[in-house]
Amino acid sequence: MNLRRALRLARKFATTADKALKTLDAPAPTRASTLSGAPPKVRGDATWQDYEEAAAAYLRQLGYQNVIGNQAGSDGGIDVQVPGLLVGQVKFEQSKTGRPVVMQIFGVAAQQGVQALCFSHAGYTKQAITWANEAPVALFVLRYERSKKRWEIRPANGRAKGLQRGPGVQ
Description:
Strand content: 15-25%
Structural class: alpha/beta
Radius of gyration: 15 Å
Number of strands: 7
Distance between the termini: 33 Å
Shape: globular
Strand order of the largest sheet: 1-7-6-5-4-3-2
Number of domains: 1
Number of helices: 5
């Protein structure tokens, strides 16, 4: 998918995402959040499965219901989702997540008419952030702090800050 076509799709589906964001009423936190409640317990080093579970737990912490994550088998590019609202990709890699991953999850979200989001352990390239800011893709940095035995989640763009407010009353 080329950038122009993707941006055209972004505009088409931006109204759906904007409607979801208009239901939000609390100010967005700008600092890193920690996962509370029942975060995934990690023994030793965190795995990609732990990261997918943590992303799902974070969405539940924000108040999203019916969160689906960490399913076995082929996921079609979706690692975490709230059916009818959000689809997300979780990347547990040592290098920064690039634009192709962000474009891929955006394409999946556009097909479903929902909001795209991405969680990355290593952060994002400048190109990924620039592209996500032009398309409605929420970017989060998700890290397990082994020494503190806790998960930290930080928004990497404005769309992610908006989603941190939670779903509002549904």
